[in-house]
Amino acid sequence: MSVPAVEDSWGRIDAWLLRHAPVSHALLRPPASPADIRAAERALGVRFHSDLVASLSCHDGVELQPGAPVLTHYGPLSCVADIVKSTSFLRGISADIPDADAFDEDDEDDGELATYWHHDWLLITLGIGRQSSDGLFLSCYPGGNWGRLGRYFDEDTPSFTGWASLRHALADLADALERGRPFDGRTSLAYEGALLWETETTAVPDPVSPLALAAESAEPEPEPPAPSEPLVLAGRSSGAYLTMVRHRIPRPPPPNQPDVVFAEHLTPAELLRRLGVSPDTVRPRTRARARKSADSTWAAYRPMVRAGSVGGWAYATQEGGAAQFTRPEVLRKVSADTRAVALTRRGPEVQVTVAEDGVPAPEGVRHVLSPREGGGDSWPGSMAAYARFLAELEGEFGITYRPDDDTDAELTSGLLLPVLEDVDRAAGQYVGRVRNFDLAALIERTPPARLRTAMAAQLGRLAAETRFDVYDEVSDALARTARGETVDLTPDSLLDLRIRTLTAEAWAARQRVSGQRAWRDDDDPVTQSDSSAWALRVEAARALREFVHAGAPAAAATILSRRMSAYWRTELAADLEG
After folding, report:
1. What three-state secondary structure class fits 329?
2. pTM, two decimal places
3. Maximum Cα–Cα distance across the chain
4. What are the tens digits of pLDDT across the range 109-146?
5. Residue of 327, 329, 335, 318 whose CA lies nearest to 271
6. pLDDT, tens only, 211-233
7. Going by C-beta distance under 8 Å and a sequence separation of 6 or more, which residues neighbour residue 114?
8. Are 161 and 125 contacting, i.e. CB atoms less than 8 angstroms apart?
């Protein structure tokens, strides 16, 4: 099948823009003169490929103004002057950077790409930032790649695209505009007279659940201590046996310095409840068993805590998983109607945080950042600070706690569904634009009731796209938001538990896919697609929480930025009309 000439493709592109995106069409520059093209060739010492000459003879790039047509994330087509300017700039940088390899005649692609910027490349687009730092380049190097298009992004390795020439790329662009097909993975849209590009995304409808896989596995049982046996070596000497016993001197174990939180007048069971323990994981465990369980597939990367009591204080130690006790939302929940004190250590930093009735106490945070002392991987300065803070807690709060005292004790323990992060009630209100959409203007001109109704509809669409709405408590909440009714999102409500569970699913899936654990292998049933699907549901949950706690204007940025349909602008216009 023959590829249309550059002039034919530009004729089709012009016709579509003129009909559907006249603002963008008006920003196409008139043709470049043959004299200007020849002058650019002399300035750069390169003969322009015939496709580039033909394209510049149709339009000398675009006017760099809002609404100018762009080639997706490669940016707008450059005019002759910008081609000279960008190419000269990149040549100047490349002169100071040695090539990765010498040119290899047997591997023309690798040889030509083994440089920061090849002398015979021309940068023919400006990236989204409209600077000479990224975009499409056209190879004018004589040989098999003559006229081929490549990708160049600042601080990244250049590569060739799937387009054999600019003629192929313009033909694909014309087809994409006329037939609504994706171009370089994005879909073209005409909105308010301008050409826009959107990514149409999808998610697997039923992602594999890491928590369900964890429920199918068994918690590891403690192993009995192995007997200490000497290493016996037998030899023969003058007719007699020689027996040697080699004693290995064990390394001293690291000190027990767990993150610990204390809550006055609470029982260990109540403290675990406030921390978000999963009831089906609660049982007595020693520290060693808790840590072993936390590091197993059974835990699914959920935090493990053990709880006990000292004097009039309940306490909980964290034995695995992401740190919890420095999170403000956790301390607020733990200290409700009481006092809470957290002692945490991360490498060189040791910190004490005090909160009372959900509010940090005045000067309630004290921390020590200790430099590494003595070399190696230890932080003896921090160890001393941890011990000093423990002594201060005893003097200030009457808390007498020694981590070594409960090492072998079977304390009540369990895995957490972590408390949700706080909703920033103001963050979304300061977002001016979302995906080239003037959100600030929309909020300013739309009556609050109409904006709320439209954003509730958009939230429902987002929930359907991500399949966040498959849960009964979620679908009920969405129906209530659509009717303008109150939604129960209080801690430990059914909806709160659902969102916390989804958050745990997404975290576990991401950790499994990242392969940070020794037990992950290529046959793991949790894939990147599963991880992405869980993450999308969590983002939809975030949008719902912002809508409930902060209102439609604050939630609008999250809702619109996470919409998966490329046609969300058209749907939003319909929702605003009601």
Report:
1. helix
2. 0.84
3. 105
4. 556 887 888 999 999 999 877 777 789 999 999 888 99
5. 335
6. 999 999 999 987 666 555 554 44
7. 99, 100, 101, 102, 103, 104
8. no
